[in-house]
Design brief:
Elements lengths: L15 E2 L2 E11 L8 E5 L3 E8 L13 E8 L4 E7 L5 E10 L2 E8 L15 E8 L4 E7 L5 E8 L5 E7 L14 E7 L5 E7 L6 E7 L5 E7 L16 E7 L5 E7 L5 E9 L2 E8 L20 E7 L5 E7 L5 E8 L5 E7 L17 E7 L5 E7 L12 E5 L2 E8 L16 E9 L16 E3 L5 E5 L8 E7 L4 E6 L2 E6 L5 E11 L2 E2 L6 E6 L12 E4 L6 E6 L6 E7 L4 E6 L4 E5 L6 E9 L3 E8 L3
Parallel strand pairs: 30-37
Antiparallel strand pairs: 1-2, 2-29, 3-4, 4-5, 5-6, 7-8, 8-9, 9-10, 11-12, 12-13, 13-14, 15-16, 16-17, 17-18, 19-20, 20-21, 21-22, 23-24, 24-25, 25-26, 27-28, 28-29, 31-34, 32-35, 33-34, 35-36, 35-37, 38-39, 39-42, 40-41, 40-43, 43-44
Length: about 625
C-alpha cells in the first residue's frame, strides 16, 4: 500500500514563458494501486481541497469499499488538516469541490451506492450525488439526483440566493427528469441551500447535446456552455457542423431561456469554459473545423483531423469580436480559462503537440502534457509552457483553481515520475498529480538592504556583534556571508546575524546577505565594511603617526598627526560598535568635541591610505 506522504518539493529551476517565469513550487502524487481517473482541486480562503477517486483502502478515514471520494483538506502550505472518504460499497467519484464559505462546501460527484454515506438512495445505475459538508468534513446533508439511466455530472455553481444549480448529461427521463428529447440531453437542476429541487429543465433536441460548464453572470443569470448537434427542440440557433457546434445558453433564475447562440464551422466544435469580461465574454472550446467562424486551425481539420484550442471573444449581444486557434498538429483541449487583472487570459489545457504554438512537451509522442498558454486581451499569444513527464498527463473539467493572478494549483494524472513530475508513483499505476505554479517574475525575491550594525569592532572588548537587515519582499529565508571567513564565526537567523569574532583577526571584514524563496534567490546585498581591531593597550598608534591627548579627557580630544599627512578619516565608536563621529583628516591637529557624550570608553580608528591604527579614549565625568 502507498503511504500518504506530503512533502513540499522546491524546484529551483527557472521556467521562462516569454515575460512570464513560472515555477512548480509544490507537488504531490496521490492514489492507490489502481489507475486514478477522477481528480479535482479547489481553493479555500486559507488553503486547498484535493480530491480523487480512491479504489483501495490507503489507511484513509472512513473508507467504504470499491471507489470512494477521497477529500483532503490542507492549509496554504499544503500541510494536511484532515482527510476523509465519502461513499458506499459501490463506485463513488468526485467531479468538483465548491466552497460556499469558510464553514461549508459542496462535494459534487456521482454514486452507484445505496449504502454507507449514501442514505438518500438512487434511481439506478449512476446518479448525481451532492454532499454538503462543514469545515471539518462532517456531512451536513447529502442528496442524489437523476433517472433510472446513467447520469454524467458536468458542473455545479452556487447561486446568489444561497442555493445551487448543476448540469448533468442524461440519456433518459424518469426519476427527477421530467423531459427527454433523445440521444443525449442537458439536464439543469436548481436547488435551494438544503438540496431541495426548486426547478429542473431539459435542454437539447433529438441529437447529441452537452452542457459542460456554467457561470453566474453580472446580471445574476446562468450562462451555460457546451455543444449541440442539431436545431430543434429547445435549440433555436443553427449549428453549422456535421457533428456539433459550441452552444451558449443564458437562463434566468427561474429557468427561462434569455438567449442562446451557436458558434463553429462545418465539422465539430465543443464549448468547455466561459468567463465574463468588461464588454462581453470569452469562451474556450475545442475545434476541428477551419471554416465558418473558425480560422487559423493548425492541423488537418475535419474528420480524422486534429483538435485545436479555440478562444473566442463575443460582445454582450453574442457577436464575435475576435477568435484565435491555439495549439499544434496534435490534440489540444482546454479545461480552464482565467482573466488577469491586466486583461491577459490564461488558458490551461492538455496537449499532444510539440509544434505550432506548443514547445517543450515532455511527453512521449502521442501522449499529453499539461499546457499553459497566455494571450493578451486581443488574443495575441504572449507565452506558453508545458508541464509533465514522459507519460500521459491530462486534465479534467475542474482541474485548475486560481489562488491569485500569479499562482495556480492544478490537478492532473500521471503514470511516470519523470520530467517535471518529481513525486513517487506506484509502479505500473497512474496517480493523481497535484502541483502549484507561481509566476516568479512577480514573486522574485527582492535584494535585501545592506546590513546594519557595528562598523568598528574592538575584539578585546567585543566578543560578538549583531547585525540586521530590513525584511525583503517575497522572502522565505536569508543567507549571510562574512569575508574573509577567518574574521569570525557567523550565526544567522533570518533577518539577524551574529558574528563571533576571532580575537586574532585584524583588518576589514565584509558582511552581506541574500534572500531566497521557492522561485530562487536574489542577488547579494551591498557589503557592509567592518573595521576590526584587537585594541590592545590605551594607544595602539605608533608615535610616528599621531599623538592623542588628553586621555582621559572631559571636553575635547586632540589628534596630532605627523607629516606627511595621510588622506583618510578618523572613525570613533562606543564599545557596542555604534559610530559616534567621523573626523576627516584635514590638518596636523584635529579636535573632537566630546561635550554632551556619556562618560565611558570609546574606540578610535585612523583609517587612511597607508595605515589602519586603533586605540581607546576614556571620557570621564567633570
Amino acid at each position: 500500500m502507498k503511504k500518504i506522504i506530503f512533502t513540499i518539493i522546491l524546484l529551483y529551476c527557472f521556467i521562462i514563458i516569454n515575460a512570464q517565469n513560472y515555477n512548480i513550487v509544490w507537488q504531490q502524487c496521490l492514489g492507490d494501486e489502481t489507475t486514478t481517473h477522477y481528480h479535482t482541486v479547489a481553493k479555500t480562503s486559507d488553503g486547498f481541497f484535493l480530491a480523487l477517486g480512491l479504489n483501495i483502502d490507503n489507511g484513509t478515514t472512513n473508507y467504504h469499499g470499491s471507489s470512494d471520494i477521497w477529500l483532503i483538506r490542507t492549509d496554504s502550505l499544503h500541510n494536511i488538516l484532515w482527510e476523509k472518504c465519502y461513499g458506499g460499497s459501490d463506485a463513488d467519484n468526485p467531479h468538483k469541490i465548491v466552497t460556499i464559505n469558510d464553514t461549508a462546501s459542496y462535494i459534487y460527484g456521482s454514486t452507484w451506492s445505496v449504502d454507507g454515506d449514501v442514505v438518500s438512495g438512487t434511481y439506478g445505475f449512476n446518479d448525481v450525488w451532492v454532499i454538503k459538508i462543514n469545515g471539518q468534513g462532517d456531512i451536513l446533508w447529502e442528496q442524489t439526483y437523476g433517472s433510472p439511466y446513467y447520469e454524467e455530472p458536468k458542473d455545479l455553481v452556487v447561486t446568489p440566493d444561497g442555493g445551487f444549480v448543476f448540469t448533468n448529461r442524461v440519456g433518459s427521463d424518469g426519476g427527477d427528469i421530467s423531459q427527454y428529447f433523445g440521444q443525449f440531453d442537458v439536464w439543469m437542476c436548481k436547488c435551494d441551500a438544503d438540496g431541495n429541487i426548486e426547478w429542473e429543465k431539459t435542454l437539447g433536441n433529438e441529437g447529441m447535446d452537452n452542457g459542460v460548464s456554467m457561470i453566474i453572470n453580472k446580471k445574476g443569470n446562468i450562462l451555460m456552455i457546451g455543444a449541440v448537434q442539431w436545431p430543434g427542440g429547445m435549440v433555436t440557433c443553427n449549428p453549422h457542423g456535421e457533428i456539433g457546434n459550441v452552444w451558449l445558453v443564458e437562463l434566468d433564475m427561474q429557468g427561462n431561456i434569455v438567449w442562446q447562440e451557436c458558434y463553429g464551422g462545418s465539422y465539430y466544435e465543443g464549448g468547455m469554459k466561459i468567463l465574463e469580461v468588461n464588454n462581453g465574454y470569452i469562451f474556450a472550446a475545442f475545434a476541428r473545423s477551419n471554416d465558418g467562424d473558425v480560422s487559423g486551425h493548425h492541423g488537418p481539420s475535419g474528420p480524422g483531423g486534429t483538435i485545436d484550442i479555440w478562444i473566442v471573444k463575443i460582445d454582450t449581444q453574442g457577436e464575435i469580436i475576435w477568435q484565435k486557434c491555439l495549439g499544434g498538429t496534435g490534440y489540444d483541449v482546454p479545461y480552464a480559462i482565467f482573466n488577469s487583472s491586466n486583461g491577459d487570459i490564461l488558458v490551461f489545457s492538455h496537449t499532444t503537440s510539440n509544434d505550432g504554438d506548443v514547445s517543450g512537451n515532455n511527453s512521449n509522442p502521442g501522449t499529453n502534457d499539461v499546457w499553459l498558454a497566455r494571450i493578451d486581451s486581443n488574443g495575441v499569444l504572449l507565452g506558453q509552457h508545458c508541464f509533465g513527464g514522459r507519460g500521459d498527463e491530462y486534465l479534467n473539467n475542474h482541474s485548475v483553481a486560481r489562488i491569485n493572478d500569479f499562482r495556480y494549483i492544478i490537478s492532473s494524472r500521471t503514470p511516470h515520475s519523470s520530467g517535471n513530475v518529481q513525486c513517487s508513483i506506484t509502479p505500473l499505476d497512474t496517480d493523481a498529480w497535484f502541483f502549484e505554479i507561481k509566476d516568479c517574475d512577480f514573486y522574485a525575491p527582492a535584494i535585501p538592504a545592506m546590513p546594519e550594525g557595528p562598523v568598528d569592532v574592538c575584539t578585546v572588548t567585543t566578543i560578538q556583534s549583531t547585525y540586521n537587515t530590513q525584511p525583503a519582499v517575497n522572502s522565505h529565508g536569508y543567507v549571510w556571508e562574512i569575508t574573509p571567513v577567518t574574521a569570525g564565526i557567523l550565526d544567522q537567523d533570518s533577518t539577524m546575524a551574529t558574528v563571533i569574532w576571532d580575537t586574532s583577526f585584524k583588518g576589514t571584514a565584509g558582511l552581506r546577505v541574500f534572500n531566497f524563496n521557492d522561485c530562487g534567490s536574489s542577488a547579494w546585498s551591498e557589503t557592509l565594511d567592518i573595521n576590526v581591531e584587537t585594541c590592545i593597550g590605551i594607544n595602539e598608534m605608533e608615535e610616528t603617526f599621531a599623538i592623542v591627548y588628553p586621555n582621559p579627557t572631559h571636553d575635547y580630544v586632540v589628534f596630532e598627526l605627523k607629516k606627511p599627512l595621510p588622506s583618510g578619516k578618523i572613525f570613533i565608536s562606543d564599545l557596542t560598535g555604534r559610530r559616534v563621529a567621523i573626523i576627516p583628516i584635514t590638518g596636523e591637529k584635529l579636535v573632537w568635541d566630546t561635550r554632551g557624550l556619556q562618560a565611558g570608553v570609546y574606540l578610535y580608528t585612523l583609517n587612511c591610505t597607508k595605515y589602519l591604527r586603533s586605540g581607546k579614549l576614556i571620557l570621564s565625568n567633570h
